[in-house]
């Protein structure tokens, strides 16, 4: 099914702003990450999406490519972000086939509900490994390409970077660790660490023209997180009454936040956490 632009992207963005840019995205076949990549591809980028499931990843790549005539979107499956070599191979293939890597989305994540009393050390470690080690591995595999991309555009640092600066990272986090959340010890610990990756990388890599930021989605309709992990549905009154915006969000709203951070409008945003949750976490509401 070919989606119409208004279904995945606001009309405030100008077509072509990411022309000649290349996206590398882990977890790219998932609902949120595929929406992020689809929006960027619509606006001119080419992309490589990474996933564990070959069929799902390749199918999603083809689907995303319909966002723009002439778009190149490669799906590389059978890649586990916990394995640095398979990620490195994927990053090298992406750069070789698409001409570099300008923007990275570290979106692969693992989640299930379990109280700590039933959480084995291996279960805890599995989520930490996917979320934290996986994000680290993603940055390590792509950093030389990002540095190259930032260098191509970087000036002497005294004036803002010119139009179309590359070398940007977005980590996809969550909001449960901003308060406390039952059944999510493992994920809360993992996402807290993911947030801090952006803080440190921004300090280390900022002088090289690279930005590293976090997007923390709140309750987003139609996502695996909400369908598999949330006890409520949006139509239940209890599921929205503590959300200041009064509703669940859409993947389009996460895509719009992504476009902002990667666009020239986001040049001076570095090491930040952009929470896109309709104000939910301020009320301690957890989906
Ligand atoms: C307790 C569990 C469990 C459960 C798995 N484990 N599921 N423990 N309750 N429901 C334990 C296993 O028993 C095992 O420990 C350990 O975790 C590893 O399990 P494996 O199946 O071998 O791991 P693996 O194949 O690597 O799978 C990783 C996974 C899995 C995280 C466990 O759930 C997964 O791959 N999920 C798909 C990706 C995903 O979850 N995406 C959703 C992201 S949504 P033992 O001790 O038995 O060896 C998101 C948004 C959050 O992140 C928003 C919230 C609303």
Topology:
Layout: H1 5-8, E1 22-26, H2 31-42, E2 46-50, H3 54-65, E3 73-76, H4 84-98, E4 103-106, H5 121-153, E5 168-172, H6 185-205, E6 211-217, H7 224-229, H8 251-262, E7 273-276
Parallel strand pairs: 1-2, 1-4, 2-3, 4-5, 5-6, 6-7
What would your notes on this structure say?
Its EC number is 1.3.1.124. One of its GO terms (molecular function) is 2,4-dienoyl-CoA reductase (NADPH) activity. Keywords: NADP, Oxidoreductase. It is an enzyme of class 1 (oxidoreductase). It catalyses: a (2E,4E)-dienoyl-CoA + NADPH + H(+) = a 4,5-saturated-(3E)-enoyl-CoA + NADP(+); a (2E,4Z)-dienoyl-CoA + NADPH + H(+) = a 4,5-saturated-(3E)-enoyl-CoA + NADP(+). The chain has one domain: Rossmann fold. It starts with a helix and ends in an 11-residue tail after the last strand. Helices cover 40% and strands 12% of the residues. The chain has a seven-stranded parallel β-sheet with strand order 3-2-1-4-5-6-7, sandwiched between helices. It is globular and about 50 Å long. It has eight helices and seven strands. β1, α2 and β2 form a beta-alpha-beta unit. The chain is an alpha/beta fold and 287 residues long. The mean pLDDT is 93. α5 runs parallel beside α6. The site of hexanoyl-coenzyme A (HXC) has 20 residues, from α5 and α7.
């Amino acid at each position: 099914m070919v989606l119409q632009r208004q279904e995945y992207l606001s009309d405030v963005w100008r077509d072509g702003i990411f022309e000649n840019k290349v996206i590398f995205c882990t977890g790219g076949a998932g609902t949120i990450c595929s929406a992020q990549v689809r929006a960027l591809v619509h606006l001119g980028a080419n992309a490589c999406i990474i996933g564990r499931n070959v069929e799902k990843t390749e199918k999603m790549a083809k689907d995303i490519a319909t966002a723009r005539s002439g778009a190149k979107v490669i799906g590389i499956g059978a890649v586990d972000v916990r394995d640095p070599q398979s990620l490195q191979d994927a990053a090298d293939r992406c750069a070789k086939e698409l001409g570099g890597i300008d923007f990275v989305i570290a979106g692969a994540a693992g989640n299930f509900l379990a109280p700590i009393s039933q959480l084995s050390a291996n279960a805890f470690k599995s989520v930490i490994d996917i979320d934290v080690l996986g994000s680290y591995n993603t940055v390590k595999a792509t950093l030389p390409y990002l540095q190259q991309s930032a260098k191509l555009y970087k000036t002497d640092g005294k004036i803002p970077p010119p139009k179309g600066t590359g070398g940007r990272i977005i980590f996809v986090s969550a909001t449960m660790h901003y308060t406390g959340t039952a059944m999510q010890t493992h994920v809360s610990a993992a996402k807290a660490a993911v947030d801090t990756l952006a803080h440190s990388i921004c300090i280390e890599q900022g002088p090289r023209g690279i930005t590293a930021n976090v997007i923390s989605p709140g309750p987003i309709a139609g996502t695996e997180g909400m369908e598999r992990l949330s006890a409520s549905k949006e139509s239940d009154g209890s599921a929205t009454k503590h959300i200041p915006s009064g509703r669940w969000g859409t993947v389009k709203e996460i895509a719009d936040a992504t476009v902002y951070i990667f666009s020239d409008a986001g040049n001076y945003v570095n090491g930040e956490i952009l929470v896109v949750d309709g104000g939910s976490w301020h009320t301690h509401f957890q989906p």
